[in-house]
Write a structure and sequence with these properties.
Layout lengths: L1 H9 L17 E2 L2 H7 L8 E5 L2 E7 L5 E7 L4 H16 L10 E4 L4 E6 L6 H5 L11 H21 L3 E3 L8 E3 L5 E3 L6 E3 L6 E2 L11 H6 L1 E2 L1 H17 L4 E3 L5 E3 H10 L17 H14 L10 H8 L20 H5 L32 H4 L11
Parallel strand pairs: 1-5
Antiparallel strand pairs: 2-3, 3-4, 4-6, 5-6, 7-10, 8-9, 11-12, 13-14
Organism: Manihot esculenta
Pfam family, one: PK_Tyr_Ser-Thr
InterPro entries: Kinase-like_dom_sf (IPR011009), Prot_kinase_dom (IPR000719), Protein_kinase_ATP_BS (IPR017441), Ser-Thr/Tyr_kinase_cat_dom (IPR001245), Ser/Thr_kinase_AS (IPR008271)
Length: 385
């Protein structure tokens, strides 16, 4: 990974290098001066969010491009590694459902990553955050987001070489463009898997509630861990429930524990996010719940791969048989649950390590002013429909 950064940070890279992702067709190296000007000197008024890594700022380049700039707070070895991993991975991927690299800046004591700005922020902001009350995510959009996110993961697991395990699939890391097309983001925890390697053992990263049991407890990571996380995300999209919620007396319950009895009793309508007011396709709902139930099985070998997940979400069962409507509740050790520091005001998930936010992470729970309004730009294209 160091070779990529050392090479690119020492020489000028031509604009148009064909390594962007998502809607981006190119990435380039920015100067600190350019990004300082674009963000109005990294003004507090431009700040979109803040987390353990540092801050994210809204900006506008001289050629009119609206960007999000992730500025790392501290250049310790951990931050340096996550920066290197993210730039390395973003430089490799190119898919309409992955947030690509717009550029980066490497200075003596500065590390910044530049992305396209996503006007509809994150999935989290619409399910649990500042836009939750507006119910912009109707059933059709939710299914579009589920399928698009799955297609982004399929690309990481099966189409790029070496294969990539994201390790932090969650609602705050699914960003939404002006058409509510999903883009999976934040590759700071990603693992590149050499050909022929089925799994690795590593230090646990990610967000409790989304973590596969074998990964949360033993650090065993594989593509199947992303499949599990996607299953939790899919349940979250369908139900509007957080992965872990607090009950009275401080008791914590996972989304699978909540859903399990209703799935067993086939009370599918009771699972649907009440904000949809009954406006959903019942057949699609049953099918999607089935897919989620397969993804969150405790045994990794029993989970489908992402190719199968995408096919099933699109209505095709590659296994050629009726899938059992059943779910297994993840059982985290008590010591892990005690590390989950959720509150009624946060995103409903905690990290087994330091709190880590997504690219636009803290925005979902901050009542920030829309940058389009703040800076006087036309919102006709992106205003919520």
């Amino acid at each position: 990974m160091g070779s990529f950064l050392s090479c690119c940070s020492k020489k000028k890279v031509e604009d148009g290098a064909n390594m962007g992702g998502g809607g981006s067709s190119s990435w380039r190296i920015f100067t600190y001066k350019e990004l300082h000007a674009a963000t109005n000197g990294f003004s507090e008024d431009n700040k979109l969010g803040e987390g353990g890594f540092g801050s994210v700022y809204w900006g506008k380049t001289t050629d009119g491009l609206q960007i999000a700039v992730k500025k790392l707070k501290a250049m310790n070895s951990k931050a340096e590694m996550e920066f290197a991993v993210e730039v390395e991975v973003l430089g490799r991927v190119r898919h309409k459902n992955l947030l690509g690299l717009r550029g980066y800046c490497v200075g003596t004591d500065q590390r910044l990553i530049v992305y396209d700005y996503m006007p509809n922020l994150s999935l989290l902001s619409h399910l649990h955050g500042q836009f939750a009350g507006e119910v912009q995510l109707d059933w059709k959009r939710r299914m579009k987001i589920a399928i698009g996110s799955a297609e982004g993961l399929l690309y990481l697991h099966h189409e790029v070489t070496p294969h990539i395990i994201h390790r932090d699939i969650k609602a705050s890391n699914v960003l939404l463009d002006s058409d509510f097309e999903p883009l999976v983001a934040d590759f700071g925890f990603a693992k590149l898997i050499p050909e022929g390697v089925s799994h690795m053992t590593t230090r646990v990263k990610g967000t409790l509630g989304y973590l596969a049991p074998e990964y949360a407890m033993w650090g065993k990571v594989s593509e199947s861990c992303d499949v599990y996380s996607f299953g939790i995300l899919l349940l979250e999209i369908l139900t509007g429930k957080k992965p872990i919620e607090k009950l009275p007396a401080g008791v914590k319950r996972t989304i699978t524990e909540w859903a399990e009895p209703m799935i067993i009793q086939r009370r599918f309508k009771d699972l649907v996010d009440p904000k949809l007011r009954g406006n959903f396709d019942e057949n699609q709902l049953k099918h999607a719940i089935n897919v989620a139930a397969l993804c969150v099985q405790n045994e990794p070998d029993r989970r489908p791969n992402m190719k199968e997940v995408v096919n099933m979400l699109k209505g095709y069962d590659p296994r050629g048989k009726i899938m059992p409507l059943r779910i297994e509740s993840a059982k985290y050790k008590e010591e892990l649950l005690t590390l989950d520091q959720t509150s009624d005001d946060d995103d409903g998930s905690g990290s087994p390590e330091d709190s880590e936010y997504g690219v636009f992470g803290a925005m979902e729970v901050q009542k920030i002013q829309d940058p389009y309004k703040r800076f006087g730009y036309n919102t006709a294209v992106t205003k919520y429909v």
